[in-house]
Write a structure and sequence with these properties.
about 425 residues, alpha/beta, TIM Barrel, ten-stranded parallel sheet, 13 helices, about 35% helix, disordered N terminus, disordered C terminus, binds zinc ion
């Protein structure tokens, strides 16, 4: 079903490609990339207002970024980890490509210079929690809030100018919950899912990462690609991905948040749908909101903001560091060794195919029946207490031994076991 429309779009692109390349105001096309005349470049900058479109990414939400056909947004999660993040930065610099990075607070704390390098290079920097727990779908809202704040605090603290931090957040493992989303949205923070992953956190070859990235992009024609800048396989696959994007006529879009001095790019609401209706796009092909995303919310009832004493109108996005916040590091253990190894069978993995989406639904339903039988929020489990245990799998990212890095908890997402 998707394939036929892809074929149509691809043919259309071949016909119209040259015309599209002349549109818009290119931010950094190849000619603007000194020393790299064949670079992919960044075709345009898209300014978004989180208040207007608070949840994006068709892996989980109805809306996604208002991209045109063959436009791609690159995102990298879980860094910065110098050994790999620096290589990713160099690859992007060689292609004059701007991306969005979702930083883990613990990583920023261990490697603040890595955050500054991202900002200096002109990339967009959002956050991805303090310790990357894969339990945002069922942890108490207070704990989620502390995780969110910890990530923001340590990432902004690493910046020379904290206002450079974008109000963009990606939930670890994409373990969404309505209460968490409402909390983020009330603070003006945009919740970023993705349109397709490349499974670069799994034990697959760099070539497989490249294949998945291109195959899934081709299936949708445009969108947000989810990658990780802490994996050797991603570093190995990225040059080939970028070269192939160029060969296939894709263009890179750099996304930045709206500010008082930088108004949002004008868009129509329909542009925020992956495939807006047109004369050639039947209504039946509108992307459906996957049902599974709601099955997770029953264990964590969406709280009324009034119950949280939330002050959305005045609450600062980037809170100043207080004594209580300074204690976050003590309360929340630093990331552990297998923090970034998202387990096989997790929702993030299962989401990647239609077939697996059904499996994800069954998994979520099964999880519902085995936990919180009374519909009450599941009690948080002691998941960050141990460092490497005998059962801990080999770490997928092996940083330079000379580089200080945080430790990580060894527990895994229970429903994936
Ligand atoms: Zn992550």
């Amino acid at each position: 079903m998707i394939g036929s429309s892809v074929a149509f779009r691809t043919r259309s692109w071949v016909v119209l490609g040259l015309g599209f390349l002349t549109l818009g105001s290119p931010a950094a096309l190849a000619a603007d990339c000194p020393g790299h005349p064949d670079a992919l470049g960044t075709s345009r900058t898209l300014v978004v207002d989180p208040h207007e479109h608070p949840r994006i990414g068709t892996m989980q939400y109805r809306e996604t970024l208002p991209l045109k056909d063959h436009e791609v947004v690159l995102t990298f999660d879980d860094g910065p980890l110098p050994k790999y993040s620096n290589q990713v930065l160099q690859i992007l610099a060689d292609e004059c490509v701007k991306a969005t990075f979702f930083i883990i607070g613990g990583q920023a704390k261990a490697n603040p210079e890595g955050v500054r390098k991202l900002v200096t290079a002109g990339h967009t920097v959002g956050t991805h929690s303090m310790t990357h727990p894969l339990t945002f779908d069922r942890m108490p809202i207070e704990k989620a809030n502390a995780e969110i704040n910890g990530g923001i605090e340590w990432t902004s603290a690493a910046m020379t100018d904290p206002s450079a931090l974008a109000p963009f957040f990606r939930i670890p493992g994409l373990m969404r919950a309505e209460g968490v989303e409402n909390l983020l949205i009330s603070r003006g923070i945009q919740v970023w899912s993705a349109d397709f992953p490349a499974d670069d956190w799994r034990h697959v070859s760099p070539d497989r990462v490249y294949q998945l990235a291109i195959q899934r992009l081709e299936a949708k024609g445009k969108g947000i690609l989810l990658l990780h800048d802490i994996q050797a396989r991603t570093v190995a696959a990225l040059p080939k991905i970028i070269r192939d994007l160029k060969a296939r006529g894709y263009r890179i879009v750099h996304v930045v948040p709206a500010t008082a001095d930088r108004p949002a790019t004008p868009t129509a609401p329909v542009e925020w749908l992956l495939h807006p209706p047109s004369e050639t796009t039947p209504i039946a092909r509108w992307p459906a909101v996957p049902n599974f995303v709601y099955t997770q919310t029953q264990t964590l009832p969406a709280p009324d903001l009034a119950d949280l004493n939330a002050q959305p109108a005045h609450q600062p996005l980037l809170p100043r560091r207080t004594m209580a916040q300074a204690n976050v590091a003590a309360i929340l253990p630093a990331p552990g060794r297998d923090l970034f190894a998202i387990p096989e069978g997790s929702l993030e993995v299962l989401l990647s195919t239609t077939l697996s989406r059904r499996a994800a639904t069954r998994l979520a339903m099964a999880a519902e029946t085995t936990r919180a039988p009374k519909g009450k929020a599941a009690k948080p489990q002691a998941r960050h207490t141990s460092h490497a245990t005998p059962a801990t799998p080999k770490h997928v990212a092996q940083p330079n031994s000379a580089t200080p890095r945080p430790t990580r908890p060894s527990k895994r997402y229970p429903t994936a076991a």
